[in-house]
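FIELD: query
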Amino acid sequence: MASKEGFKTRWGFILASLGMAIGTGNIWRFPRVVSQNGGGVFVIPWMVALFLWALPLVFLEYTLGSTHRKGVVAIFQDLYGKKNGWLGGFIAAVTGGIMFYYSVVTGWALFYTISSLVVPSRMFKSEAFWRSFQTSGLPLLFHIVAVVVVAYILSKGVSGGIEKATRIMIPALFLLLILSAIRAVTLPGGIKGLDFLFYPDFSKLFHHRIWLEALSQAAWSTGAGWGLILTYAIYSRKQEDGFTNSAVVVFGDYSASILAAMVVVSTIFAFYPDPVQANKILSAGNTGLTFIWIPRLFSNIPFSWLFAFIFFAALFLAAISSLISLMELEVRVMMDFGLSRKKAVLLVASIGFVLGIPSALSLNFLNNQDWVWGLALLVNGVLFSVALWRIGGRFGTYVSSVTRYNVEKYITVAVKYIVPLEFVLLIVWWFSSAMRGKWYNPFVVDSLATVVLQWIVVGLGLFIAFSMFYRRKNEG
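FIELD: result
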């Protein structure tokens, strides 16, 4: 079903796409990962990953969405045949798996934004406040709020909902990050954080873990291989340059990551100049760093409630703008199968609410889903690589229809050959590190067995469902 919706302006598309790319992966994951992997030296392979993973996959997604004007499942059906649309279905399922817990995290950010204004003194008792919040039932309530807010935005359509919302959210997000970064850097001792981030220790440059973590961060943060930019590209205007748009999105995402790292790392170094103690804080994990240590650190700053509000408001805007794109991908898939936008939004929101409940009620379950589907993004990248092999010589025509730049060879080499190589390296590294402890127990949060089992169940279920559906359709 061809799309009749669209972004009214180029900036509308770019801001929506930036909202897609910039999320919690920038604000709570990147500062932790860059700090635990050598600071400035990590930035070098991370920038290499921009050109060898993020930008090529983002542009390929843009090209597919702009050319076919269909969602990820329908495009894979075009390339492989109807019953093999389950490959695109797997991409949509992975993004859905992330969506189900991402709405919970969005709710956390909203709760902390409100708390920084209403009960800042309680929030600054960070660990006790976090524990009481998690056991109160409020995560479920705020999960519902996040889903309802995004469903309302999506029900208004692309230009009336997504474009209008992100026109406000994304400039506000960057303004809040810039204000936070200025305050963090100007704290006594905060400049040490910048030294750590931007002065690389080249002796660590060829440590394999730093390169693998950089590739993983690029895959997680930019949305490359998620199918999200593909979905937004369906609504892009034909006269726009797709490569320029893709580059703006990827570089914008990287800029947000750097700003977030300046905020978090400079604040930590201002109060804990000892690198050993600073690294201990940064090792607290995503939730521990963001919802326990950040409030504790901000409590030492004059006008602490204000800067806590600025930080958590930025986190909330980043989270909800990404949640919009996660839900829109699923809505687009439903629309391609004949549902109206309003019915598709209602269905996706209902499923998202129900399947998000376990993550709202259990941190262990949320961490498991984050681990399982975050790793599955690497599989998504390979599926897009296979799609390019399937397109073959037609890709040159695709590229010339969306950009004036001669980037066909660059994208082809990167996606056909380098992306699969990166996937193999990351998977081998993950398998080798995962083969310890109770790796065979699927009920352990981060075990090898839980990941492989859930991937197989979802992939096999999709394969059977698509095969049965089109067999019955042909027989009818």
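FIELD: remark
The two ends are 21 Å apart (CA to CA).
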